[in-house]
Amino acid sequence: MFRLFRSSVRSLFLLSLLLCGLPAQSQTEQKPAFISDALVVYLHSGPGNQYRIVGTLAAGSSVVFLSEDNDYAQIQYEEDKTAWLPKEHLTFTPGLNAQLSELTATFQEQSSRLNSLEQGASQLQATLDQVTLERDLAVQELEQLRRNNERLTTELNATQASFWQQPMTIGGVILTFGLVFGLLLPKLIPSRRNSDRWM
Q1: pLDDT tens-place string over residues 93-151
Q2: Torsions phi, psi for 79 (to 5 deg)
Q3: What is the pTM of this model?
Q4: CB 120, CB 128: distance < 8 Å
Q5: 63 touches 92 (CB < 8 A)
Q6: CA gap 165, 186 in Å, rounded
Q7: Are 96 and 35 in contact (CB under 8 A)?
Q8: Tell me: the pLDDT tens digits for 34-63?
Q9: 188 to each of 142, 178, 191, 199, how far by Cα in Å?
Q10: Dist. CA 173–CA 175, nearest whole Å
């Protein structure tokens, strides 16, 4: 009953369009479209079931929307072929299959980037561990050098102190001063005596 009412309203609408001189087929601009997630869509040579079937398209196929006539849309597929199909099987957003393919590609790309970042982080961690090890070895070597320096300084101070405390060293110093004083003193005293004689 409702179908009969709808068809009669459609007939009246088409008749009024013809009487007014308006074309029954509305022209719209071409735009990308997709076959909805029905398994297979039959393509017709005209805008209705009464036209012969000219082919089929699988769900998610990419097509170009050309125009529409009532419940049918004209599409272009395979570059140069055109056909009609029910508008309910046409959508302007990618279907689930296309979205799944896009999400899978994005996931693989992100996984690849994540693996690359993880490898970079591993290399940086290895470099950091190596630098930390080298720093620790340098700190240990510096500490060893500091201890050696302190030991050598202590030994040098002890050697200098013991040098002046040895009896032979003290005797040698006294002997040296005695010789120097003994050699210089006769040269100073005769000159004074000679100067006294001339007076």
Answers
A1: 776 666 777 888 899 999 999 999 999 999 999 999 999 999 999 999 999 999 999 99
A2: 70, -50
A3: 0.37
A4: no
A5: no
A6: 32
A7: no
A8: 666 656 788 888 888 888 988 888 877 888
A9: 59, 15, 6, 18
A10: 5
